[in-house]
Design brief:
Length: about 120
């Protein structure tokens, strides 16, 4: 019972972070655009990233679709490690580097504890 609760708590936290982040990436308020410029990314990159984040939220919360969920978790991994590296490269404060890694730990918890109905099955797993 407890792993199921931890799975859902971590998944809801992850989807909340990605839902809010995706919205702001697509809406592109001045603070987001200032951060994009600081990191050296063009504005259109954040539109693409925001759409992917919102898609990941849908994939993770939808019933079934285990292969799509695996792709979503992989994208989240690449996004968050890339975010941490981007902040490190521009010598942002340690908190800016660690924040995506903390979200990554939450994502990895969600992935590791996902129920059987949300996992791929078969010989290729």
């Amino acid at each position: 019972m407890m792993p199921r609760v931890v799975y859902w708590v971590s998944t809801v936290l992850l989807c909340g972070a990605y839902g809010v982040g995706g919205y702001f990436d697509v809406a592109q308020p001045p603070d987001v655009m200032a951060q994009a410029a600081h990191l050296g990314y063009p504005a259109y990159f954040f539109t693409i990233l925001g759409v992917w984040k919102l898609g990941a939220v849908i994939a993770l919360l939808a019933p079934g679709l285990p292969r799509l969920k695996e792709w979503a978790y992989a994208g989240i991994f690449f996004n968050l490690t890339g975010a941490a590296a981007s902040h490190a490269v521009v010598r942002d404060p340690l908190g800016n580097v660690m924040t995506p890694l903390i979200v990554l730990a939450i994502a990895m918890t969600s992935w590791a504890l996902r129920p059987a109905s949300r996992r791929l099955t078969g010989p290729l797993v």
